[in-house]
Automatic annotation (TrEMBL):
EC number: 1.1.1.94
Residue ranges of every copy of the Glycerol-3-phosphate dehydrogenase NAD-dependent N-terminal domain listed in the record: 9-164
Protein name from the UniProt record: Glycerol-3-phosphate dehydrogenase [NAD(P)+]
Residues of the Glycerol-3-phosphate dehydrogenase NAD-dependent C-terminal domain: 184-324
HAMAP family hit by this protein: NAD_Glyc3P_dehydrog
Binding site for NADPH: S17, W18, R37, Y54, K112, A144, R259, V283, E285
Active site residues according to the UniProt entry: K195 (proton acceptor)
Keywords: Acyltransferase, Cytoplasm, Lipid biosynthesis, Lipid metabolism, NAD, NADP, Nucleotide-binding, Oxidoreductase, Phospholipid biosynthesis, Phospholipid metabolism, Transferase
Source organism of the structure: Mycolicibacterium iranicum (Mycobacterium iranicum)
Entry similarity comment: Belongs to the NAD-dependent glycerol-3-phosphate dehydrogenase family.
Length: 341
């Protein structure tokens, strides 16, 4: 009789709302350790089965989830790494991980952002810092608090190797959290980064009092912009009509829990980006991604009016009113092949 296989040990790096939610999901499936920077957060998870700072007091985490502040302990026991740190801290954590992680351990990113300076997707940073480690992303329309509260939701796990993706997907799957698979890592990563920029656009519209029809128009044209850039970069067009694209765009643009929509609304109320970020306890990746997206648009020669206007407000002193006026002067053309808004 063949010996029973040991359950893989999942290590989640990061103590924010989504990292904690995913860690709790994994802990219901098998042994899971979460690395957090704060001893207070570690104690809250271990003793109270809560992450009160990011998920509130009502969300009860799996009692099998254990947290640690010891990075070496986390790195050395990992069979699967889940990266729940923001894009600006991703490289630093990976660099520390590189000295302690066993070879070939898969790395799954939860980050919907791009690295400023290099313009890298997170899987590209993994390839650079941890060559030989399979790199992918778990993404979809996932407001952390709702998933943590047990509402039905779904995500897609993108890995280059579909056999590996199918095996890993089971670690992230519950009766109420459906995990699909794809090999389109580039498409899923770009969809995740792009939708945050468009959520800022819709948030700005909420502040201006635009109608439901206008919001729907902006979101639909956002999918078109996302698809064009994503395909130019090597992604699959169908990905942008799926969970990581349109699905995530819808929830990020419409949910009052959306950080990026919140940024847009606050911009529409006259606050500066610096004021908005200072008042938030979590990262809104769309703020950092806006300038990177426009660099990609220039590189590939793609007209992206909505992203352009968001970048103008976030980084170049334009007003929310000017942004929407800028969109409306764009001449409509062919819905699929046209270049404008």
């Amino acid at each position: 009789m063949a010996p029973a296989q040991r359950e893989p040990k999942v290590v989640v790096l990061g103590g924010g709302s989504w990292g904690t939610t995913v860690a709790s999901i994994c802990a219901r499936r098998g042994p899971t350790l979460q690395w957090v920077r704060s001893q207070e957060t570690a104690d809250d998870i271990n003793t109270n089965h809560r992450n009160s700072k990011y998920l509130g007091d009502e969300v009860e985490l799996a009692d099998t989830l254990r947290a640690t502040t010891d990075f070496t302990e986390a790195a050395e026991c990992a069979d699967v790494i889940v990266m729940g740190v923001p894009s600006h801290g991703f490289r630093g954590v990976l660099t520390e991980l590189a000295t302690q992680l066993r070879p070939w351990v898969p790395v799954v990113s939860l980050v919907k952002g791009l690295e400023q300076g290099t313009n890298y997707r997170m899987s590209q940073i993994v390839d650079e810092i941890l060559p030989g480690h399979p790199a992918g992303i778990l993404a979809g329309p996932n407001i952390a608090r709702e998933v943590a509260d047990g509402y039905a939701a779904a995500a897609v796990l993108a890995m280059p190797d579909q056999h590996l993706a199918a095996n890993l997907a089971g670690l992230f799957r519950t009766k109420r959290f459906r995990t699909y698979t794809t090999d389109d890592v580039c498409g899923v990563e770009m969809a995740g980064a792009l939708k945050n920029v468009y959520a800022i656009a819709v948030g700005m519209g909420f502040a201006l009092g635009i109608g439901e029809n206008t919001r729907a128009m902006v979101m639909a044209r956002a999918v078109a912009e996302m698809s064009k850039l994503g395909v130019a970069m090597g992604g699959n067009r169908d990905t942008f009509a799926g969970l990581a694209g349109m699905g995530d765009l819808i929830v990020t643009c419409t949910s009052q829990r959306s950080r990026n929509r919140h940024v847009g609304e606050q911009l529409g109320k006259g606050k500066t980006v610096e004021e908005i970020i200072a008042a938030m306890n979590q990262v809104a990746e769309g703020v950092k991604a806006a300038s990177v997206i426009m660099e990609f648009a220039d590189k590939y020669g793609i007209s992206m009016p909505i992203a352009r206007e968001v970048d103008g407000v976030v980084n170049h002193g334009s007003s929310v009113e000017q942004a929407y006026r800028g969109l409306m002067v764009e001449k409509p053309g062919h819905e699929v092949h046209g270049s404008g808004f």
